[in-house]
Cryptic loci regulator 2 N-terminal domain-containing protein (Trichodelitschia bisporula), 714 residues
Amino acid sequence: MTRFTILYCRRSDGKLETGTHGKRERNQPTAPQLSQKPDAKGVISYYREITHDEAKHQDWRRKLAGMLIRQLGDAEQIARDKNFILHDLPENYRLFEHVKSRSTEVDGKVQKNPKTHAGGGHDRQDAYLYGHPLGRKKRYRSPAEFFPHLLWLSTDETGDRNNCSCKLCAPDDIQPEVKEAEGAKAMVAKKDESKAPKKKAMVALPNRQIPTPEAPPQAQPQAHPPVQVPSLAPQQRFSQASPQVPQHASHSPSPYTQVQGSRSQTSTPIHATYAQGQPATLADTLRGQMGTMPSPMVSQQHPAQPQQRPAQPQPRPAQPQQRPAPPTPSPLAQPRSQEQQLDLEYGRFIYRVGELVWFNRGDAWGLGVIMRRWFYHAESRGYLVQPLSHPFDQSQPAVVINLDSYLRPWLAWSAPSFTTDRLNQVADISYDALKWDLLLKGELGPGDPVIDASILAAKAIDKSWTPFELVHDQQNSPFLYWNGVYLGGERLWVGEAARLRMGGAEDVIVIAAIIERVEKNQPYGLSGQSPIFLMGDVYTLATVPDGAVEPPDQASLPPRMREDARYRNRVSTMSPTGARVYWKLVKAKLQVDFSNIKGRWYETSCLLPIIKGQAAFEEAARRGEIEPVGPLLNARVDCGPSAGRRFATRLEAFGKAVPQGSRLVDGIVPPSAPPQVSVPISAAQGSGEGQYFAGEGGGLEEFVNLEGEGWGFQ
């Protein structure tokens, strides 16, 4: 059994009861919502409280502790203890589960439930955290959404909720431009009057010194023009149907001034305490977010000199107030290969060569890696997936998946427990260290070796990273610049966005450079440990103020981010309360360690229909209620914050989990003779409602995504 270091949250603002319209009410689902009585159509929809010992409660506490220790822990403590968990949620905060399913009784007879997935046969099981002082309608949908509030509880000794950047305490909307000057003056006055001591963290904040690299080399457009890729018609770029929504009338974009100092989760000001042209480190950014006290003005007196009347000041002409210049976005990198161009285009491929994925095997879900991908024609894609297995199983055939909906990103779900119970009792068990002969002989107990091997291999891949396509290797420089990197189960490129652990749930960094520092006389091709980090611009998804014109074109953004925001804004017109969004630049040229990257960023318009199901997605789109997909995804290395182990090649990171002789194939040309076509799958299974693994053993109740409870895809 994995051992955890327990963290305690000593302060809470949770309320069991709140006042609404002069009446007191319980801060939890209402009595009708707690009722398990089916409606007229036989649908059962109710809420139930999740107890402290249930797996979902434990996973929330585990993930919250992991995020907290990454933000506040020191490197020595993290390396020593590795796994962390909260002793309990903050006082008076309670976790409830929304269970929705159809009754299995028809005319008094019990019917077989066709849904056999790990959620227990329910259509959905979403988790919500109640307890916020604003009442039962203010609830958190995921650990990532609650984390900013937990961080505020753990660090802000004043208890001032104005300092909290969570979604409930600091709504997303920014104020119109006309109030910007007032807001800036108010913030300055508040800082000058404040005499509170600096905030103390629960654990010491690491102070890491990293030499500042040179600015990344800029690619010349003439030398590296955008590669040519077979074009698709706009309506064919994403094969799944999208709801028809009216287009906004075209307006000429106006200069859209970004308010400085807006207090919201997605627009927390980051104090620029860095030298001009120097990248900002994560520790500096965090210290800036925690607040910097201004130095008091001290008047120097000389008692030995007689007092003199001060000279009357000469009147000076009024100087216009200088407003801080908004950050300037970095130039967007140009693709250097066809693979990079394909991955950076909107609606081309969701999944990439070399990535770790869940795939539908017909009667179960398995874990595998994408070895190849292609276009059959303009509207159809194919993927060659190699299942993961143990070192003595070299005969696992690769399968062909022809639909995006039969795949899921690795971070869409959490790995279940091992089918061999004895493996669950060993801390930090690894794929390479396991004695496979004992497991295959059954000496470790009953279980399925193939399933356990795939879980172990996936966890090992999640802790790996491999840079590729060396861009710049300056002589006598300790820094190497790469065009891409395999980070955990995913492939990242320069010029695209990655999800951040710091900041809000939808904060991303647009990668301008991938930089590795190598020690003296150390060849860069060796496997092992090596400092590596990203440089880029941090953006947050902000809300367009009421009455404002269209958001700016945002040409400095990657195409996938631009197109996804446009789609979401078109859909928002279907709702009377729909809010338009835009990507707001928070900080340029920020330096971020790999350990603070959750994973790559996915378009809501492309991935959410797969996770939620196409029909449910279209119904939500017709209502104008599209929610972001980012908070529904897990983060890599959730319990062990580290960059991981470096491998020279991606195949080396797979180890013996794939057959010898396997190779990754770039390009979009179909194979001449596909080895095996996937088994036909029902619509329910294709939408994510199939059983996980068909094997012995337990632990299937843990096959859920607890950082993305919004859609409940168990």
In short: The longest helix spans residues 55-72. Residues 338-463+661-702 form one domain. Residues 350 and 404 are 7 Å apart (CA to CA).
